[in-house]
Design brief:
single chain, alpha+beta, two-stranded antiparallel sheet, 14 helices
């Protein structure tokens, strides 16, 4: 008569005992769920870690700063082709106009970008990012130095051959020697190293310390003034960046003779816009990953439903005996539903452990800055439990509706 007063603890105990009796089948059944959850944990952790890392990396572009360039943020090949054909190069006249006509712009700096091969003694380093900048750039963007100094306004104005090296470049060219004060050859011309930047690390496996900074006047003396400038603007009032952006847009539109109904023929970039673009990209990746994992969970749920239907058939006589002893429809349903939920929850738990192990391994073997948000394991367990309820309800109700007399006649053992 104990079945008439079965508690939830009794239901869980009986369900656990049933699963333990068939450990191999139980393990194989929950494998699909475990792999799906492990994939979710890994993808979520990778994206969350990358979001945090990219946010820190974009700190070079200060919150009160924006960049005006020929293209802006390009989201597709057609958009890039259109901008390349339509947008004119930004020139020093544009820089001068912003400096002269924009009272909301505190500092206006200009830059050009290129690749270069550097030589120092017997050492040669290729594919180094060359950044030719005006002296104002050090007041607009963050260039923290490990040693030495940035080049002076007078050096920038008179096209002096001085440079600041990224940490990776300094270590590759000079090893343990002190780089400040030494000479580096850039395109056959000798530059004196006056500073070395602090370590920034890598982004997506690409070093952010593989650069050389030189005065833009020096670069233009070597290479000419063709090509578009990149203009960095820092608002005079940190709280009025948006107003400074609108002012800069109006000035450039007037200079480029654009009609009110015409789109800008230049782009404006902010750290917020870059972060939004990055989140859009990772959000799309996350949605695709969730779709794939969702298929895995559905397949795993179907497998569990089939196994539970088989279990109901195998335990027909047991169900009949329990009903003959007074077990209610609810007791039978709860027992089989508990088995289904426990299978899925166990699969979810194993998946969380596997996912966390995969994240730890990735952080150890790769530069991937993954981190596990607290909600991911909790949500995984909750979702897998819901899968257990959904796919286990039909077999459980089928077991609960069995006629005890017909069940006792069954020859299934």
């Amino acid at each position: 008569m104990a079945d008439r007063r079965m508690t939830y603890a009794d239901v869980v105990r009986l369900a656990a005992a049933s699963l333990i009796e068939n450990p191999l089948r139980s393990f194989l059944t929950l494998t699909g769920i475990a792999m799906g959850v492990a994939a979710v944990i890994f993808v979520v952790s990778a994206i969350d870690g990358l979001n945090a890392y990219v946010a820190r990396t974009l700190g070079d572009l200060k919150p009160d700063t924006f960049v005006v360039d020929k293209f802006g943020i390009i989201k597709g090949h057609r958009e890039w082709i259109r901008a390349r054909r339509r947008n004119p190069d930004l020139t020093w006249d544009d820089v001068a106009a912003l400096r002269r006509q924009s009272p909301l712009a505190g500092r206006v700096a200009a830059a050009r970008y290129d690749d270069a091969t550097l030589k120092a003694g017997a050492q040669t380093l290729s594919d180094v990012t060359l950044r030719a900048v005006s002296a104002e750039m050090f007041e607009v963007e963050s260039y923290n130095l490990q040693r030495g100094r940035v080049f002076l306004p007078s050096e920038a104005e008179h096209a002096a051959r001085v440079c600041v090296l990224g940490l990776d470049v300094a270590e590759a060219l000079f090893a343990r020697l002190e780089p400040v004060g030494r000479e580096v050859a850039v395109r056959g011309r000798s530059f004196q190293v006056v500073g070395v930047g602090e370590k920034k690390g890598s982004l997506f496996g690409q070093s952010q310390d593989n650069y050389i900074l030189i005065p833009i006047a020096t670069y233009e003396k070597m290479r000419g003034t063709h090509g578009s400038l990149s203009i960095a603007v820092r608002a005079a009032d940190p709280g009025r960046r948006e107003a400074a952006m609108d002012e800069a847009r109006a000035i450039l539109r007037a200079r480029h003779h654009l009609k009110p109904d015409e789109d800008d023929d230049f782009g404006i970039i902010t750290s917020d816009a870059l972060m939004e673009l990055w989140r859009d990209l990772t959000g799309m990746i996350f949605r695709i990953a969730l779709f794939v994992v969702g298929i895995s969970l559905v397949v795993g749920g179907i497998v569990i439903m089939n196994i539970m239907l088989l279990t109901v058939v195998e335990r027909t006589r047991e169900i009949g005996v329990r009903k003959a002893l007074g077990a209610r429809y609810r007791d039978i349903v709860f027992q089989f539903l508990a088995e289904s939920v426990m299978l899925c929850a166990a699969g979810g738990l194993i998946g969380v452990v596997l996912g966390m192990g995969g994240v730890a391994l990735a952080r150890w073997l790769t530069p991937l800055p993954a981190r596990i948000p607290l909600w991911a394991p909790l949500l995984s367990i909750a979702v897998t439990s819901a899968v257990g309820v959904f796919f286990g309800l039909h077999p459980a109700r089928q077991a609960g509706r069995m006629d005890p007399i017909e069940a006792l006649r069954s020859e299934t053992v």
